[in-house]
Design brief:
single chain; 372 residues; alpha+beta; endopeptidase fold (from Nostoc punctiforme); 7 strands; globular
Protein backbone atom coordinates (compact mmCIF):
# COMPACT_ATOMS: atom_id res chain seq x y z
CA UNK A 1 0.00 0.00 0.00
CA UNK A 2 2.83 2.39 0.80
CA UNK A 3 4.48 1.73 -2.57
CA UNK A 4 1.18 2.36 -4.35
CA UNK A 5 0.68 5.69 -2.58
CA UNK A 6 4.21 6.79 -3.48
CA UNK A 7 3.64 5.91 -7.12
CA UNK A 8 0.44 7.93 -7.20
CA UNK A 9 2.16 10.90 -5.57
CA UNK A 10 4.99 10.78 -8.11
CA UNK A 11 2.53 10.64 -11.00
CA UNK A 12 0.73 13.70 -9.67
CA UNK A 13 3.84 15.83 -9.27
CA UNK A 14 5.04 14.84 -12.73
CA UNK A 15 1.75 16.08 -14.12
CA UNK A 16 2.38 19.39 -12.37
CA UNK A 17 5.86 19.61 -13.86
CA UNK A 18 4.91 18.43 -17.32
CA UNK A 19 3.39 21.68 -18.66
CA UNK A 20 6.66 23.50 -18.06
CA UNK A 21 9.08 20.71 -18.86
CA UNK A 22 7.22 19.10 -21.73
CA UNK A 23 6.06 21.99 -23.87
CA UNK A 24 5.08 21.21 -27.45
CA UNK A 25 8.16 20.00 -29.31
CA UNK A 26 7.93 22.55 -32.08
CA UNK A 27 6.10 25.36 -30.33
CA UNK A 28 6.04 28.82 -31.93
CA UNK A 29 9.33 30.63 -31.33
CA UNK A 30 9.70 33.61 -29.01
CA UNK A 31 9.23 37.05 -30.61
CA UNK A 32 12.30 38.32 -32.49
CA UNK A 33 13.86 41.71 -31.92
CA UNK A 34 11.54 44.35 -33.26
CA UNK A 35 8.32 42.70 -32.05
CA UNK A 36 6.51 43.36 -28.79
CA UNK A 37 8.07 45.55 -26.13
CA UNK A 38 11.58 45.53 -24.67
CA UNK A 39 11.91 43.74 -21.33
CA UNK A 40 10.86 45.93 -18.42
CA UNK A 41 12.82 45.61 -15.21
CA UNK A 42 13.79 42.11 -14.14
CA UNK A 43 12.27 39.49 -11.91
CA UNK A 44 14.03 38.79 -8.66
CA UNK A 45 16.26 35.75 -8.92
CA UNK A 46 14.84 32.97 -6.80
CA UNK A 47 14.31 29.25 -6.76
CA UNK A 48 10.61 29.63 -7.54
CA UNK A 49 10.98 29.43 -11.33
CA UNK A 50 11.86 25.71 -11.05
CA UNK A 51 9.61 24.88 -8.09
CA UNK A 52 7.41 22.37 -9.95
CA UNK A 53 10.44 20.54 -11.36
CA UNK A 54 12.17 20.46 -7.97
CA UNK A 55 9.06 18.95 -6.42
CA UNK A 56 9.01 16.31 -9.17
CA UNK A 57 12.63 15.22 -8.83
CA UNK A 58 12.54 15.17 -5.04
CA UNK A 59 9.37 13.06 -5.15
CA UNK A 60 11.27 10.67 -7.43
CA UNK A 61 13.93 10.33 -4.72
CA UNK A 62 16.50 12.40 -6.59
CA UNK A 63 18.94 15.19 -5.70
CA UNK A 64 17.71 15.97 -2.16
CA UNK A 65 15.72 14.40 0.70
CA UNK A 66 13.23 17.29 0.68
CA UNK A 67 12.35 20.42 -1.29
CA UNK A 68 13.53 22.62 1.58
CA UNK A 69 16.98 21.01 1.41
CA UNK A 70 17.36 21.23 -2.36
CA UNK A 71 19.76 24.24 -2.63
CA UNK A 72 18.52 25.34 -6.10
CA UNK A 73 20.97 28.19 -6.58
CA UNK A 74 24.05 26.09 -5.83
CA UNK A 75 26.13 24.82 -8.72
CA UNK A 76 25.93 21.10 -9.49
CA UNK A 77 29.14 19.22 -8.70
CA UNK A 78 30.68 16.21 -10.42
CA UNK A 79 30.00 14.10 -7.33
CA UNK A 80 26.34 15.10 -7.31
CA UNK A 81 26.04 14.37 -11.03
CA UNK A 82 27.52 10.90 -10.57
CA UNK A 83 25.08 10.18 -7.75
CA UNK A 84 22.17 11.46 -9.85
CA UNK A 85 23.08 9.35 -12.89
CA UNK A 86 23.45 6.26 -10.74
CA UNK A 87 20.03 6.85 -9.17
CA UNK A 88 18.57 7.16 -12.66
CA UNK A 89 20.01 3.79 -13.65
CA UNK A 90 23.10 4.95 -15.48
CA UNK A 91 26.62 3.70 -15.14
CA UNK A 92 29.30 6.23 -14.29
CA UNK A 93 32.79 6.16 -12.89
CA UNK A 94 33.56 7.73 -9.54
CA UNK A 95 34.79 11.26 -10.41
CA UNK A 96 38.40 12.05 -9.59
CA UNK A 97 37.38 15.52 -8.44
CA UNK A 98 33.84 15.26 -7.02
CA UNK A 99 33.80 18.94 -6.00
CA UNK A 100 34.43 20.20 -9.55
CA UNK A 101 31.57 22.17 -11.04
CA UNK A 102 29.55 20.65 -13.89
CA UNK A 103 29.17 22.69 -17.07
CA UNK A 104 25.88 22.96 -18.93
CA UNK A 105 27.17 21.03 -21.93
CA UNK A 106 28.43 18.23 -19.65
CA UNK A 107 25.02 17.76 -18.05
CA UNK A 108 23.29 17.74 -21.44
CA UNK A 109 25.75 15.17 -22.81
CA UNK A 110 25.25 12.95 -19.75
CA UNK A 111 21.45 13.04 -20.08
CA UNK A 112 21.59 12.37 -23.81
CA UNK A 113 23.70 9.28 -23.07
CA UNK A 114 21.30 8.21 -20.33
CA UNK A 115 18.43 8.35 -22.82
CA UNK A 116 20.33 6.01 -25.14
CA UNK A 117 20.96 8.65 -27.81
CA UNK A 118 24.74 8.77 -27.77
CA UNK A 119 24.97 6.93 -31.12
CA UNK A 120 22.50 9.35 -32.72
CA UNK A 121 24.54 12.31 -31.50
CA UNK A 122 27.72 10.76 -32.87
CA UNK A 123 26.06 10.22 -36.23
CA UNK A 124 24.94 13.85 -36.32
CA UNK A 125 28.43 15.06 -35.46
CA UNK A 126 29.90 12.87 -38.22
CA UNK A 127 27.38 14.25 -40.74
CA UNK A 128 28.24 17.84 -39.85
CA UNK A 129 31.96 17.12 -39.96
CA UNK A 130 31.72 15.36 -43.34
CA UNK A 131 30.02 18.47 -44.74
CA UNK A 132 33.00 20.56 -43.60
CA UNK A 133 31.09 22.40 -40.86
CA UNK A 134 33.63 21.75 -38.07
CA UNK A 135 31.18 21.01 -35.23
CA UNK A 136 32.39 21.57 -31.69
CA UNK A 137 32.74 18.64 -29.32
CA UNK A 138 29.33 19.42 -27.81
CA UNK A 139 27.40 20.57 -30.91
CA UNK A 140 25.60 17.29 -31.58
CA UNK A 141 24.60 16.56 -27.98
CA UNK A 142 23.28 20.11 -27.63
CA UNK A 143 21.15 19.65 -30.76
CA UNK A 144 19.69 16.43 -29.35
CA UNK A 145 19.15 17.93 -25.88
CA UNK A 146 17.34 20.94 -27.31
CA UNK A 147 15.25 18.86 -29.68
CA UNK A 148 14.05 16.97 -26.58
CA UNK A 149 13.34 20.14 -24.60
CA UNK A 150 16.00 19.54 -21.93
CA UNK A 151 16.86 23.23 -21.87
CA UNK A 152 14.66 26.08 -20.68
CA UNK A 153 14.35 29.52 -22.25
CA UNK A 154 13.89 32.02 -19.42
CA UNK A 155 11.48 34.95 -19.87
CA UNK A 156 13.01 38.03 -21.46
CA UNK A 157 13.10 39.85 -18.13
CA UNK A 158 15.29 37.05 -16.75
CA UNK A 159 17.75 36.78 -19.65
CA UNK A 160 20.55 37.31 -17.13
CA UNK A 161 19.87 33.73 -15.98
CA UNK A 162 20.71 32.26 -19.39
CA UNK A 163 23.79 30.04 -19.50
CA UNK A 164 26.44 29.45 -22.15
CA UNK A 165 27.58 25.89 -22.96
CA UNK A 166 30.67 26.15 -20.76
CA UNK A 167 28.98 27.90 -17.83
CA UNK A 168 28.52 25.99 -14.55
CA UNK A 169 24.97 24.73 -14.26
CA UNK A 170 22.82 25.27 -11.19
CA UNK A 171 20.87 22.60 -9.38
CA UNK A 172 17.64 24.42 -10.36
CA UNK A 173 18.52 24.15 -14.07
CA UNK A 174 19.45 20.51 -13.47
CA UNK A 175 16.06 19.86 -11.87
CA UNK A 176 14.33 21.28 -14.94
CA UNK A 177 16.28 18.92 -17.22
CA UNK A 178 15.77 15.87 -15.01
CA UNK A 179 12.02 16.53 -14.67
CA UNK A 180 11.82 16.62 -18.46
CA UNK A 181 13.84 13.39 -18.66
CA UNK A 182 11.38 11.69 -16.30
CA UNK A 183 8.55 12.68 -18.64
CA UNK A 184 10.46 11.46 -21.71
CA UNK A 185 11.26 8.04 -20.33
CA UNK A 186 8.94 5.44 -21.73
CA UNK A 187 7.19 7.91 -24.06
CA UNK A 188 9.04 6.91 -27.22
CA UNK A 189 9.76 10.57 -27.96
CA UNK A 190 13.48 10.26 -27.26
CA UNK A 191 13.90 7.35 -29.66
CA UNK A 192 11.90 9.16 -32.34
CA UNK A 193 14.13 12.21 -31.96
CA UNK A 194 17.23 10.03 -32.23
CA UNK A 195 15.98 8.51 -35.47
CA UNK A 196 15.28 11.94 -36.93
CA UNK A 197 18.73 13.24 -36.02
CA UNK A 198 20.43 10.15 -37.43
CA UNK A 199 18.62 10.57 -40.76
CA UNK A 200 19.88 14.10 -41.39
CA UNK A 201 21.68 14.46 -44.72
CA UNK A 202 23.44 17.56 -46.00
CA UNK A 203 23.93 18.04 -49.75
CA UNK A 204 27.30 18.82 -51.25
CA UNK A 205 28.12 22.41 -50.32
CA UNK A 206 29.83 25.11 -52.29
CA UNK A 207 32.75 26.77 -50.57
CA UNK A 208 30.69 29.82 -49.69
CA UNK A 209 27.77 27.79 -48.39
CA UNK A 210 30.17 25.87 -46.19
CA UNK A 211 31.75 29.03 -44.81
CA UNK A 212 28.40 30.58 -43.91
CA UNK A 213 27.02 27.40 -42.35
CA UNK A 214 30.21 26.64 -40.44
CA UNK A 215 29.85 29.98 -38.71
CA UNK A 216 26.17 29.40 -37.98
CA UNK A 217 26.75 25.89 -36.57
CA UNK A 218 29.55 27.32 -34.41
CA UNK A 219 26.90 29.06 -32.27
CA UNK A 220 24.78 25.97 -31.53
CA UNK A 221 24.29 25.71 -27.76
CA UNK A 222 24.06 29.44 -27.11
CA UNK A 223 20.84 30.64 -25.44
CA UNK A 224 17.98 32.64 -26.89
CA UNK A 225 18.45 36.24 -25.68
CA UNK A 226 15.89 38.86 -26.65
CA UNK A 227 17.65 41.45 -28.82
CA UNK A 228 20.91 39.47 -28.64
CA UNK A 229 23.37 39.39 -31.52
CA UNK A 230 26.66 38.38 -29.88
CA UNK A 231 28.30 35.36 -28.30
CA UNK A 232 29.75 37.68 -25.65
CA UNK A 233 28.12 39.58 -22.78
CA UNK A 234 25.88 42.31 -24.15
CA UNK A 235 23.30 44.87 -23.08
CA UNK A 236 20.69 45.15 -25.86
CA UNK A 237 18.26 46.97 -23.54
CA UNK A 238 20.70 48.58 -21.11
CA UNK A 239 21.06 45.67 -18.69
CA UNK A 240 23.99 43.31 -19.17
CA UNK A 241 23.00 39.77 -20.10
CA UNK A 242 24.87 36.72 -21.33
CA UNK A 243 25.95 36.06 -24.86
CA UNK A 244 23.18 34.71 -27.06
CA UNK A 245 20.89 35.53 -29.92
CA UNK A 246 17.32 36.12 -30.93
CA UNK A 247 16.33 34.77 -34.33
CA UNK A 248 17.21 37.81 -36.40
CA UNK A 249 20.26 38.48 -34.21
CA UNK A 250 21.76 35.12 -35.14
CA UNK A 251 21.38 35.80 -38.87
CA UNK A 252 22.74 39.32 -38.32
CA UNK A 253 25.78 37.90 -36.50
CA UNK A 254 26.48 35.26 -39.16
CA UNK A 255 26.08 37.46 -42.23
CA UNK A 256 26.59 41.04 -41.09
CA UNK A 257 28.76 41.68 -38.05
CA UNK A 258 31.94 39.89 -39.11
CA UNK A 259 32.80 40.25 -42.82
CA UNK A 260 34.06 37.09 -44.51
CA UNK A 261 37.48 37.23 -46.11
CA UNK A 262 36.95 37.94 -49.79
CA UNK A 263 33.24 38.49 -49.28
CA UNK A 264 32.82 42.11 -48.23
CA UNK A 265 29.73 42.43 -50.40
CA UNK A 266 27.98 39.70 -48.41
CA UNK A 267 27.65 41.78 -45.25
CA UNK A 268 25.99 44.53 -47.28
CA UNK A 269 23.13 42.37 -48.50
CA UNK A 270 21.22 42.59 -45.21
CA UNK A 271 20.24 46.13 -44.30
CA UNK A 272 17.67 45.95 -41.51
CA UNK A 273 18.12 44.17 -38.19
CA UNK A 274 14.61 42.75 -37.73
CA UNK A 275 12.65 39.93 -39.32
CA UNK A 276 10.33 42.49 -40.84
CA UNK A 277 13.15 44.40 -42.49
CA UNK A 278 15.19 41.45 -43.76
CA UNK A 279 12.15 39.66 -45.19
CA UNK A 280 10.94 42.82 -46.93
CA UNK A 281 14.27 43.70 -48.54
CA UNK A 282 13.97 40.97 -51.17
CA UNK A 283 11.61 41.74 -54.10
CA UNK A 284 8.58 39.49 -54.41
CA UNK A 285 9.85 37.99 -57.66
CA UNK A 286 13.10 36.92 -55.95
CA UNK A 287 11.44 35.21 -52.99
CA UNK A 288 12.47 31.55 -52.87
CA UNK A 289 9.82 28.87 -52.27
CA UNK A 290 10.55 25.90 -50.04
CA UNK A 291 11.23 23.40 -52.82
CA UNK A 292 13.94 25.66 -54.28
CA UNK A 293 15.85 26.34 -51.06
CA UNK A 294 19.59 25.82 -51.02
CA UNK A 295 21.99 25.67 -48.05
CA UNK A 296 22.86 29.07 -46.53
CA UNK A 297 19.61 30.66 -47.73
CA UNK A 298 17.94 32.89 -45.15
CA UNK A 299 14.41 31.66 -44.48
CA UNK A 300 11.38 33.43 -43.00
CA UNK A 301 8.22 32.36 -41.19
CA UNK A 302 5.02 34.37 -41.06
CA UNK A 303 1.52 34.28 -39.65
CA UNK A 304 0.05 33.39 -43.05
CA UNK A 305 2.88 31.29 -44.45
CA UNK A 306 3.67 32.20 -48.09
CA UNK A 307 0.79 34.68 -48.00
CA UNK A 308 2.41 36.70 -45.20
CA UNK A 309 3.42 40.32 -45.54
CA UNK A 310 6.87 41.34 -44.19
CA UNK A 311 5.15 42.88 -41.18
CA UNK A 312 3.74 39.45 -40.34
CA UNK A 313 7.11 37.68 -40.45
CA UNK A 314 8.04 36.84 -36.87
CA UNK A 315 10.80 34.26 -37.17
CA UNK A 316 13.81 33.44 -39.34
CA UNK A 317 16.85 31.19 -39.64
CA UNK A 318 19.46 29.83 -42.05
CA UNK A 319 18.74 26.76 -44.18
CA UNK A 320 21.15 23.88 -43.58
CA UNK A 321 19.87 21.33 -46.10
CA UNK A 322 17.93 18.09 -45.97
CA UNK A 323 14.90 19.86 -44.52
CA UNK A 324 16.75 21.25 -41.46
CA UNK A 325 17.83 24.76 -40.50
CA UNK A 326 19.92 26.67 -37.95
CA UNK A 327 18.03 29.19 -35.82
CA UNK A 328 17.63 30.67 -32.36
CA UNK A 329 14.26 30.22 -30.73
CA UNK A 330 12.58 28.90 -27.59
CA UNK A 331 15.20 26.15 -27.28
CA UNK A 332 18.19 28.36 -27.89
CA UNK A 333 20.50 28.31 -30.87
CA UNK A 334 20.26 24.91 -32.48
CA UNK A 335 19.56 22.85 -35.59
CA UNK A 336 15.95 21.81 -36.09
CA UNK A 337 13.77 20.10 -38.71
CA UNK A 338 11.45 22.19 -40.83
CA UNK A 339 8.26 20.49 -39.73
CA UNK A 340 5.20 21.23 -37.63
CA UNK A 341 4.84 24.94 -36.96
CA UNK A 342 7.87 25.75 -39.13
CA UNK A 343 6.49 23.86 -42.13
CA UNK A 344 3.07 25.46 -41.77
CA UNK A 345 4.39 29.02 -41.35
CA UNK A 346 7.25 28.93 -43.87
CA UNK A 347 6.90 32.13 -45.92
CA UNK A 348 9.86 32.41 -48.29
CA UNK A 349 13.62 32.49 -48.48
CA UNK A 350 16.26 34.82 -49.84
CA UNK A 351 19.74 34.04 -51.10
CA UNK A 352 22.35 36.51 -49.80
CA UNK A 353 25.12 34.60 -51.58
CA UNK A 354 23.48 35.27 -54.94
CA UNK A 355 22.72 38.88 -53.97
CA UNK A 356 26.45 39.33 -53.29
CA UNK A 357 27.48 37.59 -56.51
CA UNK A 358 29.00 34.66 -54.61
CA UNK A 359 26.60 31.85 -55.53
CA UNK A 360 28.01 28.83 -57.34
CA UNK A 361 25.03 27.15 -59.03
CA UNK A 362 24.91 23.50 -59.84
CA UNK A 363 26.41 21.98 -56.68
CA UNK A 364 23.56 22.12 -54.18
CA UNK A 365 20.55 19.84 -54.26
CA UNK A 366 17.00 21.22 -54.00
CA UNK A 367 15.36 21.19 -50.58
CA UNK A 368 13.30 18.20 -49.50
CA UNK A 369 11.11 17.86 -46.39
CA UNK A 370 12.80 16.05 -43.47
CA UNK A 371 12.04 12.39 -42.98
CA UNK A 372 10.20 11.12 -39.93
Amino acid sequence: MRRSFTSVLLALVLLVAAPAAAAAELAPPPPPAGEGSPPVGGGAESASWAKAEIVAVVAAGLMAPSVSEFRPEDVLTRGELAELLTALGGRTAVPADPARRVRLRELDAALVRLLGLRASARQLKATLAAAGLAPRSYTATEVVARLLGLRLNHPESDDRLELLPNDPITRAETAYSVARLLVLRGSGEAQAAGARVSSLTIPQLTDWQRRVLERAVHFVGYPYVWGGSSERSQAPFGTEVSGGFDCSGLVWRVYKLEPFDGGDALSGTLEGRTTYAMSGEVPRELRIPFDQLQPADVIFFGDRGPGSKPGQVGHMGIYLGGGWFVHSSSRGTTIAPLEGWYSERFAWGRRPLAEAGLAEPGLAEPATPPSG
